[in-house]
Amino acid sequence: LSSSGYLLASAEELAALAHCEPAAVAEVLERVQLFDPVGVAARDARECLLIQIKNLGYDRDPILRELVESHLEDLEAKRYKPLLKKFHLDVEELREYLDIIQSLDPLPGSSFGGGEPTYVSPDVYVYKMGNEFVILLNEDGLPQLQLSSLAQMDMDSASEKEKEYCAEKMRSASWLIKSLYQRQRTLYKVMESIVRHQRPFFEEGVTRLAPLILKDIADDIGMHESTVSRITTSKYVATPHGIFELKFFFNSGLELDDGSQVGSESVKALIKKFIAEEDPKNPLSDERIGEMLKERLKVNIARRTVAKYRTALDIPSSSRRKEHF
User: What secondary structure letter does DSSP report for 210?
Assistant: First the structure.
């Protein structure tokens, strides 16, 4: 199974491992897919949701079944008009179907931990010194390269071909050393720009993370977006608020009622905080979390958006959280 609870092997592969026919695997798989959490060992989201619908007894509704079987992409893209016309529904009836589908869990394994821990050594450190932030590069893993003294050996007796060969290798070595130095300089400039753009985060934490895109940093330091993208991939920074991947600082924005913006990661952090502080016997619904966000941030955020962010945080729905308690 994948970390999301999906089956990664085919019926034929499992049959070969168990020395049986694929039909026998299919029969057993149908039983396994009804284990808790229902939908585990499904091959994809469509099959996972159909299993849950059948388990709840909703499969008797042909419209609900076909929406899941054939129109998940339409629902995700909010292409509602063709569906209203095809199934002869009004908006409220379609909303009822959407509520049922959104109450299902497309990632039945996501609430269960697993896998080996990943240990991260930060590439950059950001410390606060007085009113300023100081950036230090972690160069422990970088070799201190220099040209060997052997490269300067006497070439008087060498042929022109040998001299050219040695000169070419020395140029390549010098280029490599300069490239490593330039890479560190670029990383420093990118981090310096991120600190400028995200200073409220470095001052106060994740809830103050501002909207930011690669182009903002690229324009600030006079480099191409692709360069910024490469230098921030799989790089980590140690901050006063924890260790984060550099890509974490790039996030979309939600517009507040006063016209300003708040970063999506800030909203996720608040959702995580609200759920961590909830009463386990009476967990917060996505709708209630949306109301709390509006009170705190003065931002209108749809229940569907709260559900999307909650799913991205690997947090189960309120009903699942209550069951787990």
Answer: P
In Å, the largest CA–CA distance within the chain is 92
How far is the C-alpha of 232 from the C-alpha of 214, rounded, in Å?
Answer: 10
In whole angstroms, give the CA distance from residue 137 to residue 180. Answer: 13
| pTM, to two decimals | 0.48
pLDDT digits (tens, 9 = 90+) for 100-125: 888 888 888 876 755 666 778 899 99
Rounded to the nearest 5°, which phi and psi values hold at 128?
-95, 125
Cα-atom radius of gyration of the chain, to the nearest Å?
A: 27
CATH 1.10.10.60 in the chain, residues?
253-324
Torsion of CA 107, 113, 118, 119, to 10 degrees: 140
Provide the CATH number for the domain formed by 253-324 in this structure: 1.10.10.60
Q: Output the CA torsion 170→173→178→179 (10° steps).
A: 140
Among 7, 211, 195, residue whose Cα is nearest residue 109 = 7
